[in-house]
Amino acid sequence: MKVFIDKDYHALSERAAGIMLSEMTRDRRVNVSITAGASPVGVYERVIKALGGANEGAKATAFDNVHYYNFDEIDIPGEERGVTRKALDEGFFDKARIPEERIHTLTCKNWQSHQAAVEAAGGLDFMLLGMGGDGHFCGNMPGETRFAEHIYKIQVKPEYPWYEAFLQMKITPTPTFFVTMGAAAIMKVRRLVMIVNGEGKAAVVKRFFESRVTEEFPSSVLKLHPNFTLILDRDAARLL
Amino acid sequence: MKVFIDKDYHALSERAAGIMLSEMTRDRRVNVSITAGASPVGVYERVIKALGGANEGAKATAFDNVHYYNFDEIDIPGEERGVTRKALDEGFFDKARIPEERIHTLTCKNWQSHQAAVEAAGGLDFMLLGMGGDGHFCGNMPGETRFAEHIYKIQVKPEYPWYEAFLQMKITPTPTFFVTMGAAAIMKVRRLVMIVNGEGKAAVVKRFFESRVTEEFPSSVLKLHPNFTLILDRDAARLL
Amino acid sequence: MKVFIDKDYHALSERAAGIMLSEMTRDRRVNVSITAGASPVGVYERVIKALGGANEGAKATAFDNVHYYNFDEIDIPGEERGVTRKALDEGFFDKARIPEERIHTLTCKNWQSHQAAVEAAGGLDFMLLGMGGDGHFCGNMPGETRFAEHIYKIQVKPEYPWYEAFLQMKITPTPTFFVTMGAAAIMKVRRLVMIVNGEGKAAVVKRFFESRVTEEFPSSVLKLHPNFTLILDRDAARLL
Amino acid sequence: MKVFIDKDYHALSERAAGIMLSEMTRDRRVNVSITAGASPVGVYERVIKALGGANEGAKATAFDNVHYYNFDEIDIPGEERGVTRKALDEGFFDKARIPEERIHTLTCKNWQSHQAAVEAAGGLDFMLLGMGGDGHFCGNMPGETRFAEHIYKIQVKPEYPWYEAFLQMKITPTPTFFVTMGAAAIMKVRRLVMIVNGEGKAAVVKRFFESRVTEEFPSSVLKLHPNFTLILDRDAARLL
After folding, report:
1. What is the pTM of this model?
2. Secondary structure, 3-state, D185-209
3. Does A154 touch chain B (CB under 8 A)?
């Protein structure tokens, strides 16, 4: 684990975007898995700009080797795209004009075959992820997660920190389960970058450093990944 | 995790030796970490033969690129070499005539700097390991291990399955602690092969497949390694 | 470059098969590219046996993660399968009962899109190849090859050492060109093993060691590959 | 080969520095090899700033895992440091306050053992290099280079483009040879980034794209590297 404490959100975003772009710069297919949510907005802003600006006169092709994956999903009944995919569309794919054939969406329908599809494409090269206030990462919830799983179903429970936000989406009927990549799948990703910012995360960051590796505190397993970079801003690192 | 069930100890040894030799065949330094004990005798027999027989007329140099590491150690008071190193000398190093400059011994004296030394040499490429009847691997004991550790000290306790054998060595004064590579260090090894043979291991093998990833059953963490091969003989696989 | 001189064809085949099987033993898709011809017969014998014998009671699935690729092809007018594919069917695929969905055939029809297909599947992990008496490898012919090419078309010429054998196949009309992976594509393969056996190859082996890296002697470029193992028998190494 | 054409030197430097910093961000030893000269000034400016600014309160340690290597050298009689090392001191090491124990200098004295030292440290992870107006890279001169060499001696000749600049250094007695990493060693570096800027390089860049892979035009061999990024500014790309 490599840890950086950057002075603010701007610096954190700069650092994470630099690594993401570097990993995308290869003369072969690159598979990246990215997170939705508020934390990566600054990263995506920079990456979207770089995607548009690369190779003057060849804008559309410079990063055409990059394929994109989500790592968890809640399906919306009657709609083709779920909660995560929609958030990624809005936050990244639409702005970066990523064509559909380079987006490989994990859903509550394809979850049993998705890991095989990822591996048939050479595996994931890079993942950008965040940490929940309860220590969850991807959809791996405290106590519910099974580290040995690759991709699995998990029940929606009222005790999850995102449950309120989830209810406010007014999805009908309310989904009862979602899908996520588990720790076994994440350990196969060649490079992980986790960004955590803001005072609201200071307590969970402290807990992360102190916690034993246990399914009760899912993010703890990331300490075992051989190529994991944790980027904090000063606010998130306040209790260290 | 890739699992093989071979028909007997001979076939298991053949398979593991083939992988070990393949990993040693590179045009660069290769760092391998190997286990003492009874299980690998058949593997070492084959590897020792290959080391002696490679390149007729150039026997001494064909695998000179390979460096060796142990992964745990109990020091013997007043002696330079500990329990593990002596067992490896007898089981492998002496027979294969590995010169001292290519053996990098972890001891109860150098354990705090050893991980840095491993990494300064490019990290471990390959590790051959076994599983204890209680689910321990290397010196990572149930309940005592901390997965997040790289190399750490652990107390000798009477409840360990090897305690009787340990007392019979009549080391005076009786060592109170030993050192081992922990899960965080093992997750950085590029390729792991674990061999488990014999009916006596059937119960722990069954437990391995059923267990959640937990420090109470240390080997469970190996399910998270991205390049892990488990080779069983039929006896060890009897309860699957 | 790592060089082994084995005492005979049996030992050479044993060593190459050991490496090939080791590379195939992974918990993920593995892409291997293999050569037709007489030299690998001994290797395939061993690999075919291992494919059949792995996991008693699970014979069909132990190496289901392995996908196969040819690296050159001469199409046969009016037939679906070309010269190389037919030879591989006979020498390996049929005997090992590899299902069609795990064989990815390069042909004179798909050569322009094949490299992209290889890369979309994560690239080649392993290639087993031989060396021609004129220093060619794959279909890279002396003076005709362009090292910078990935996959390209090359004209059939009477001066090629295999031209007589080619005419005796009595393909009508006689093909005027064939396709091959070039050096740029071969340099991307993660591990290369070349086997060369028999007195008839002694002169070209000597030339290989003495040659500068030049398109006039195609195999010379393999000296630049970072993970290349050359396995000779004593006869082939006679002039070294 | 991945090619970028950036709009100016600023953008080119930004892109190359981003990749270099990303490669340096690992939880293990990282070995980087860097070039002297005018082209990388903008890259080093950014990297030096990042080295100073990482981890507020922990400035000295954030990139302590990074070790540095030069790839060619002309010794200066009577002095410990040669031409390249002095230029790197001035351009990078002094400003970034890299301690001597993390600088591993290739010299005309240690060149025969240096490759082994590089490999004993795990090999080079990253190299930043430039291209000469005559197509040379590192000290690999047209017609004089031998691609199959790892590190070798090469004679100083009046026809080299840098000969005038070299004479003006007034080294006495004038060195008659220098040392450089050759293509075989460069092919083992895990990631290569070459930066080429300015109108003066437009002709050689055009030649690079058109040239066959040949020792007469040394940079041509880089087209064979599996992880090579070429970053040009618009001026250098003017003739493409």
Report:
1. 0.95
2. HHCCCCCEEEEECCHHHHHHHHHHH
3. no
